[in-house]
Amino acid sequence: MIHIIDTEHPWDVYSINSGHTEVISCLEWDQSGSRLLSADGDGQIKCWSMSDHLVNSWESALCSSLDGDPIVALTWLHNGVKLALHVEMSGSTNFGEKFSRVKFSPSLTLFGGKPMEGWLAVTVSGLVTVSLLKPGGALLTASESLCRLRGRVALADIAFTGGGNIVVAATDGSSSSPVQFYKVVVSVVSEKCRIDTELLPSLFLRCTTDPLRREKYPAVTHLKFLTRENSEQVLLCASNQSGSIVECWSLRKEGLPVNNIFQHRSPVVGEKQPTILKWRILTTTNDLERVSSVALPKLPISISNTDLKVASDTKFCPGLGLALAFHDGSIQILHRLSLHTMGVYYGSSSSSQRPGDESAIKRQRTGGPALHFKALQFSWTSLALAGVDNQGKLHMLRVSPSMGQVLEMNTTLRHLLFLLEYCMVTGYDWWDVLLHVQPTMVHNLVEKLHEEYMRQNQALQQVLATRIVAVKASLCKLSTATAARACDFHAKLLLMAISSTLKSLLRPHVLNTPDKSPGDRLTEICAKNTDTDIDKVMINLKTEEFVLDGPPLQSLQQLIQWVGDFVLYLLANLSIKSCLFITKGSMVRPGFGFMRDGASLGMLREMLVMIRIWGLLKPGCLPTFTATSDNQDSMQLLFRLLTKLWLCSRDDGPPQDPDETLIDECCLLPSQLLVPSMDWLPVNDGVIVKLQGKHPLRLQFGKASSLGGGGATAPLDVFTRTPGSQKMDNLRCVHMGVCPTEESKACTRCGCVTMLRSPNKTNAMKQWEQRWIKNCLCGGLWRRIPPAPLT
């Protein structure tokens, strides 16, 4: 069986009957986390992919086999994307200087330089096998011996070079035997996969050449390249029944000494001294407890001298430490270059004892086999360690960014901000960074993240526009004081998506016009025209660009209705929120964040203009309002009040408080129009909001109810859901009923719920739904949720 869980809902386990006939020896994720490789002791390799893009629904579509030849190492081919994180530039205002793209070639390329997908495996008999995914979906497979004299391979690891080559390290498991290295080159010739191998310099462990330790550690138990993209540094662990020793080696280019006979001849112009590649030991540990597992950092931190010095001065440790788990249940974090100890974890059983209760610790250590980790893995930013122990329990450990060293609050915030920016730029999940954010840090982190974002160039801001809003929403959920702002940020994501969708429907009247797109012209005209009369703003637009067929407009009515309801809700609640402009109370209601957001208010204003024009063509697409007067022009009224509010918070001038007249008019709105109750996203049921304390949280697989209590403050009434309340499809903006019968899916990050199957048949609405088929508005992954139980 293969068990897959989402860290935000660790009790929700999806178990796959893998179909492997032997013990699974390797599991390997791809870079996106949407595909998984599994290999077993019979030579079977299976490729699993998400079914319907759901994290709790998987299927195997591809497989390859080397019958009877167990797999000892497995990896995906490199796609050529490599970043370097520069700690030295952490204070820079330019993301491009903090996170630079490193020149790196893919393992194999298709026509035009596109990287070819596939995987590579090493077997116990010394074979290397490659499977390539052709664009049509077919699998191209080839196998080749690592060298002419094949021998047993007990341990192996795979790394990549910048030139597109692959390096395999292999050992037969004996510490007295050499650790062999091979260069593997994969190519496609005449529609057939070809593998070329070449022997590289090998090494003998230092402990076998030491007279005092020659036979002390007979077996090599762990062999790892320090990083996937660095084939020139390798970590080796040799062990006996009770202890281990770890060595770190580096491949260096050295000058080859020339015999004296040739040194006296006249040198040729441009001639260089011949060189040779040679493995040199960097450092070694003292005798250790027996190592049970090794975890290497995934954060691509630059290890130049200046970066290492700045990291040392600022106590920035992520990416610099590797983790060793021992058979006594402890974990040590060692520096990846010097192997000196950076931090120690003594295991959940011993850490749960009260200080001074030494007898309890002694009893636990001496009675029976100790609880220890069989597998250990760092998260993408190295701020969390996931491990499975010998009793089948899953553990998640926080790893301090400073390894427990006391820092000033500003330095801590700077470290977390740096890693949040890295996640924002790369697209990696920032869940592990949130583990270290305390509620008191949330406001400062959100403000500083926004400041750094605003310093980037316009093009990069456009690329990261939705991702930064999603990061802010995740941060705000960690504190009860900012929970309402999280709702605002989710509403902003939906607002941005609806705006871009509606603008994409506009078409220029003349196809070959070099002018701006209709959407850009609409934005420009609405920004310049401060008139509060919606019809006067319409006069300046080329209305022929807004002419659309009836069916698309009618099918998008539910999104248009949400825009109308949202504007009405914001304006009707302005009187409640206006006092907060002065008092700046910490607990605010949802919607407050939009009162000072000139860009979002301008976006709403543009959409009201579009909707007004479309209403003239197709009245059925207009949002419906329940008015107290038959002759009430609701759109005109909302546009007038929205424009006045927008003028108070425009980006090109100092922010102003809404005047008394505007607040009075907004106070009258509930007597003119029925104000809808907005269905804000419910508070996420995930585990991250429960992990802010120092005490460990114990959960049980399959039981979400075992989750501990939440924050100290009761949530706002707007978040509460009564058992008989209507369930909302947060993407389609439609009600699903009290007990929906349709299968649904929910976002693992924000909790947004939507129906799994589309009830719509029109192309316009299907295009909207296709935008969110893989990811939620916030970029989170989908998981299938069971239907609501009938009451």
UniProtKB/TrEMBL annotation:
<dbReference type="InterPro" id="IPR048616">
    <property type="entry name" value="MED16_bridge"/>
</dbReference>
<keyword id="KW-0804">Transcription</keyword>
<dbReference type="InterPro" id="IPR001680">
    <property type="entry name" value="WD40_rpt"/>
</dbReference>
<keyword id="KW-0677">Repeat</keyword>
<dbReference type="Pfam" id="PF11635">
    <property type="entry name" value="Med16_N"/>
</dbReference>
<feature type="domain" description="Mediator of RNA polymerase II transcription subunit 16 central helical bridge">
    <location>
        <begin position="419"/>
        <end position="614"/>
    </location>
</feature>
<dbReference type="Pfam" id="PF20719">
    <property type="entry name" value="Med16_C"/>
</dbReference>
<dbReference type="InterPro" id="IPR048339">
    <property type="entry name" value="Mediator_Med16_C"/>
</dbReference>
<dbReference type="InterPro" id="IPR021665">
    <property type="entry name" value="Mediator_Med16_N"/>
</dbReference>
<comment type="subunit">
    <text>Component of the Mediator complex.</text>
</comment>
<dbReference type="GO" id="GO:0016592">
    <property type="term" value="C:mediator complex"/>
</dbReference>
<keyword id="KW-0010">Activator</keyword>
<dbReference type="InterPro" id="IPR036322">
    <property type="entry name" value="WD40_repeat_dom_sf"/>
</dbReference>
<feature type="domain" description="Mediator complex subunit 16 C-terminal">
    <location>
        <begin position="719"/>
        <end position="783"/>
    </location>
</feature>
<dbReference type="InterPro" id="IPR048338">
    <property type="entry name" value="Mediator_Med16"/>
</dbReference>
<dbReference type="InterPro" id="IPR015943">
    <property type="entry name" value="WD40/YVTN_repeat-like_dom_sf"/>
</dbReference>
<protein>
    <recommendedName>
        <fullName>Mediator of RNA polymerase II transcription subunit 16</fullName>
    </recommendedName>
</protein>
<keyword id="KW-0539">Nucleus</keyword>
<comment type="function">
    <text>Component of the Mediator complex, a coactivator involved in the regulated transcription of nearly all RNA polymerase II-dependent genes. Mediator functions as a bridge to convey information from gene-specific regulatory proteins to the basal RNA polymerase II transcription machinery. Mediator is recruited to promoters by direct interactions with regulatory proteins and serves as a scaffold for the assembly of a functional preinitiation complex with RNA polymerase II and the general transcription factors.</text>
</comment>
<feature type="repeat" description="WD">
    <location>
        <begin position="17"/>
        <end position="51"/>
    </location>
</feature>
<feature type="domain" description="Mediator complex subunit Med16 N-terminal">
    <location>
        <begin position="66"/>
        <end position="345"/>
    </location>
</feature>
<dbReference type="GO" id="GO:0045893">
    <property type="term" value="P:positive regulation of DNA-templated transcription"/>
</dbReference>
<keyword id="KW-0805">Transcription regulation</keyword>
<comment type="similarity">
    <text>Belongs to the Mediator complex subunit 16 family.</text>
</comment>
<keyword id="KW-0853">WD repeat</keyword>
<dbReference type="Pfam" id="PF20718">
    <property type="entry name" value="Med16_bridge"/>
</dbReference>
